[in-house]
Structure to design on (325 residues):
């Protein structure tokens, strides 16, 4: 009050503002969100940053980066030290290039979570952040729509994805879930803020699983689908095709597939289960290396439905399955 940061009540003006004309009068769901003034800019976003991992994806990045970079205030591309093609493309278009080989640590074929953490750490005073893929083109209206609205910093926002070709083995539902092709969030969200800047789990040996783990940190009640725009995907031929990296890393842990209540389903890399598996769940990020004959001692289907893994109920979250090859 002493600073004069108040407004005298005006009954006429109050009555005029009772009709809601734009979505940005609400933060979160319109049914239970808190109404804010139409002209209140303090709750609007200030900055939009983007983090992309590109290792061996230079040909995709060359097509997507020119279309995407102007939609963001800050654009970080994370790549390995030997991927000179990605380096050249990122620098040519003005992206911030972060070099890291941590994706190969711990005998992992391609630990995307570590690369994303290195990219997040390179952001300068971030406000809102988008995690996406090097083979994704964002809607041209993304920036205008984003800055025209208010967003709940406690929520994770996602949108739909359209593939430019059929993807063998892929369920269409993955294109309508909060997966890694578009995850919009604020770093001070209660679900993740204690982990900043290492927001991503570093237990997954491939590019698969880490995005599922990330969105499950929020819980369904704090995830919001945005229908005003979608993304375009320069799709690969089959599900999981490059999740273990474009270049084969011999002797590394590679994702074989996933474990669900229906058992283990693979991506076609092997015809029979290896003797030794590495399992990582997509809810808690717990990992264990086991012999396949002992699988039932570590994971089981609960009577009421869902999986139990290492003594914790996962609901319908899946388990990332890897083997060494």
């Amino acid at each position: 009050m002493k600073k004069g940061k108040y407004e005298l009540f005006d009954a006429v003006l109050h009555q005029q503002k009772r009709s809601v004309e734009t979505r940005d009068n609400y933060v979160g769901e319109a049914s239970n969100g808190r109404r804010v003034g139409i002209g209140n800019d303090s709750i609007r976003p200030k900055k939009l940053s983007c983090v992309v991992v590109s290792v061996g994806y230079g040909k995709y990045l060359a097509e997507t980066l020119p279309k995407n970079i102007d939609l963001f205030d800050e654009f970080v591309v994370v790549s390995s030290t030997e991927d000179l093609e990605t380096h050249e493309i990122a620098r040519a278009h003005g992206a911030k290039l972060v070099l890291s080989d941590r994706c190969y640590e711990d005998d992992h074929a391609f630990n995307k979570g570590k690369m994303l953490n290195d990219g997040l750490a390179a952001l300068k005073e971030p406000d809102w952040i988008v995690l996406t893929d090097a083979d994704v083109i964002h809607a041209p209206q993304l920036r205008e729509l984003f800055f025209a609205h208010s967003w709940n910093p406690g929520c994770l926002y996602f949108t739909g994805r359209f593939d430019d070709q059929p993807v063998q083995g892929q369920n269409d539902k993955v294109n309508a879930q909060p997966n890694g092709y578009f995850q919009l969030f604020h770093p001070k969200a209660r679900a993740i803020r204690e982990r900043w800047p290492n927001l991503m789990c570093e237990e997954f040996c491939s590019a698969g699983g880490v995005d599922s783990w990330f969105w499950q940190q929020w819980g369904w009640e704090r995830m919001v689908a945005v229908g005003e725009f979608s993304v375009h995907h320069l799709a690969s031929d089959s599900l999981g095709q490059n999740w273990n990296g474009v270049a084969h890393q011999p002797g590394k842990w590679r994702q074989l597939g996933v474990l669900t209540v229906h058992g283990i389903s693979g991506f076609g890399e092997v015809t029979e289960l290896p003797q030794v598996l590495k399992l990582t769940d997509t809810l808690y990020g717990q990992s264990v290396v086991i012999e396949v004959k002992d699988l039932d001692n570590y994971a089981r289907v609960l009577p009421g439905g869902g999986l139990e893994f290492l003594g914790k109920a996962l609901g319908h979250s899946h388990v990332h399955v890897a083997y060494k090859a």
Q: What stands out?
A: The helical segments are 11-16, 58-68, 84-92, 112-121, 142-147, 210-215. The mean pLDDT is 92. The chain is about 15% helix and 30% strand. The chain has two domains: 46-233, 253-324.
